[in-house]
């Protein structure tokens, strides 16, 4: 018998109360705007298989908090800039949870794409395949 008291869908629903979930149309409007950085949190194998959004910064979900915290030995300078971060994963679940984590860390300008990379692809957003 499972001891789980909260499932992933409840966690995502709660995250969406904290993180600005945007539509793919809103994401397309934000794409390449000054001060906006798309962040791909998918696994590298997903990027290799499905392609990437050109200009998106790849930050694997498992390293996100470590790369954002300026006190971490793994901190990445991009997350120390005053940018609006638009997170996405394959379908919008991991990015909601990731967004919640970084909002709780103190970043306030965080959004995530409802439907993730799949919605981006269906909307004919720019995609770059691995060479």
From TrEMBL:
Pfam name, any one: Rhodanese
Gene3D superfamilies cross-referenced by the UniProt entry: Rhodanese-like domain
Superkingdom, taxonomy of origin: Bacteria
SUPFAM superfamilies hit by this protein: Rhodanese/Cell cycle control phosphatase
Domain Rhodanese: 32-129
Coiled-coil zones: none
InterPro entries given in the database record: GlpE_sulfurtransferase, Rhodanese-like_dom, Rhodanese-like_dom_sf
SMART domains assigned: RHOD (SM00450)
PANTHER family recorded: FAD-DEPENDENT OXIDOREDUCTASE, OXIDOREDUCTASE
Protein's name in the database: Rhodanese-like domain-containing protein
């Amino acid at each position: 018998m499972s001891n789980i008291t909260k499932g992933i869908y409840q966690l995502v629903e709660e995250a969406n109360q904290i993180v600005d979930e945007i539509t793919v149309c809103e994401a397309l409007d934000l794409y390449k705007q000054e001060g906006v950085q798309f962040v791909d949190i998918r696994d590298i194998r997903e990027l290799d298989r499905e392609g990437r959004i050109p200009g998106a910064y790849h930050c694997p979900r498992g390293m996100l908090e470590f790369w954002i915290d300026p006190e971490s030995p793994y901190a990445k300078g991009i997350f120390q800039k005053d940018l609006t971060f638009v997170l996405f994963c394959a379908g919008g679940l991991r990015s909601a949870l990731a967004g919640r984590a970084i909002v709780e860390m103190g970043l306030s300008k965080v959004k995530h794409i409802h439907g993730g990379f799949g919605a981006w692809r269906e909307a004919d957003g720019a995609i770059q395949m691995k060479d």
